[in-house]
Amino acid sequence: MKVKEYTVPELSEYLESLRSLYDIVRLVAPESCRIIELDHDSYAFGRKCFGCWERSERCKTCTSAMALKTSVAQGKVVIKKTSQFSVYSVPVRLRGANDVVFPCVIEMVTTHRNSIPVTYTDDRQDTLIVPAGSGASGTGADQFATGKTDLLTGLPSWAEFCQTTRDIFIQSPSEPRVIVMTDIWKFGLVNELFGIESGNTILRGMADALRDSGLRYESICRRGSDHFIMSFKSADYSEAKLTDLLMKLSSMFTESVCRIFLQAGVYRANDLTMPLSSMCDRAKLALNAIKEKTKFMISEFDQNMLDRLVHEQHVLSSFRSDLEAGEFQVYLQPQVDREGSIKGAEALVRWIKPDGTIVPPDSFIGILERSCLISDLDRMVWDLAAGYLAAWRNIAGKDFYISVNISPLDFFHIDVISHMENLVRKYGIDKKSLHLEITESFMMSDTEKQLRIADRLMEAGWILEIDDFGKGYSSLGVLKDLNFNTLKIDKSFIDETENQERSRAILESVFEMTKKLRMEVITEGVERKEQVDRLSAMGCKTFQGYYFDRPLPVPDFISKYLSGSEA
User: Fold this and answer.
1) pLDDT score recorded for residue 187
2) What is the model's pLDDT at position 376?
3) pTM of the model
4) Contact predicate 415/457, CB 8 Å
5) What element of type H or E holds 316?
6) I want to staple 282 with a disulfide (CB 3.0 to 4.6 A). Which of 51, 252, 267, 496 is the partner?
7) Which band of pLDDT confidence, cut at 50, 70 and 90, is reported for residue 313?
8) H or E element: which one contains 333?
9) Are 262 and 249 in contact (CB under 8 A)?
10) pLDDT score for 20
11) Is 456 helix (H, G, I), strand (E, B) or coil?
12) Ramachandran region of residue 476, left (φ > 0), alpha (ψ -120 to 50) or beta?
């Protein structure tokens, strides 16, 4: 199927024509689980898209995610209590005003209320999902359990596992238990590369191996696609035996199908009054803690994992209200010459709670990026920085600038070029006074597209800075491909190492290259006078770091650097 491409106006018109045919019509980004909102020639990422049904199995059966992956329209029927939803997802490509082409999915839903009586045996699983047109068989139905048995593996269903395990716990409530959840590393790639039947062969083989493993589990089931859950008496659980089994399972299909890798999350349950679903959630947390970090490992749940989850949920739930309440504030860290005279500043964000507590950036920036909320924060910073430049034009000098950070995600969620041009017009500032910092990771995917965006920004007269240079592995490639104005050397480049001579030689080469490329250089993380002296000798003229000053609240920055009391 050829995926159709639309401009924003074209897609807006098409969606409007569909709304008379379906109860719900929306454009979604399955990778981030967000609704895409269209407005004239622009688009933005709005609220989460999973409000219609339960989250427990949502992503495993998401027709929109499958449509995006396969480039083929997908359909399913969702039965929730006494209502039935027919869902149809069609992949499309959206072209924004900046020529960024974004893959997304049109999701169309028809509701049939009070149509089908459904009885559920577990309080967490009140949604039954069946691929549209598949009846009771086929690979789609194989993903789920009906009644007491999982159709694909013959193991107990999730509902049966819950009932059996609860009964066991009631019989011996004081005996600690261990919940183990296993997962096949990147199992989706197995289905994609080798076909669903190959994936089913692996799952059936794993189920057989678990039955014959000799592990003394009390109950077992398969839940979702590739998760197997077991409950043990604490005295019967052995990490060594589980490790041996996972290694055996990992090597079982090397010849017949492909090489797979197993991981396991473990939760030790001392309080058996806790809901079984919460125990499994903790095992899943332990499992998630190791995903993407290694191909084979067993991880045990600890309180820090739960604390991190609670913190993440707090950040996400309070972000928008706290942003509107002004709790996110811009701090400015000066960029100076060797003598400490001000040249410009970098705009940084601090989250300051009403009681004065400062939330460190590294405890919320990553969460906002993973949740596609970082663009909301970035837009606030850009707007405030432009406002400062307009207000200070008569006291800061014509060469004063503020650098603002642009997340690589911003280019997917915002028309960055148009947004920046609008800020220049709104505040009447020179665009050369608002520098744009882009990290090396900006170039890590779809290099050709990123080159086009960077070239357009440069052609439009913006000052582009490569942030964190030397922190990643693409540094020289970035210099080769992108005609940036300024290079910001990462702190790790100037930190003390065991190989000082090698470090010095690399730095000298970098400065020599920037001279030939006619690029300015800013060195970050400068903390000592000897670093300033050494870098100055190499040709560095602009510095940023605690040796000169920390990031300052805006009133303190004005008082120290823009009112004649410069230190």
Assistant:
1) 76
2) 92
3) 0.60
4) no
5) helix 303-324
6) 267
7) confident
8) strand 328-336
9) yes
10) 64
11) helix
12) alpha
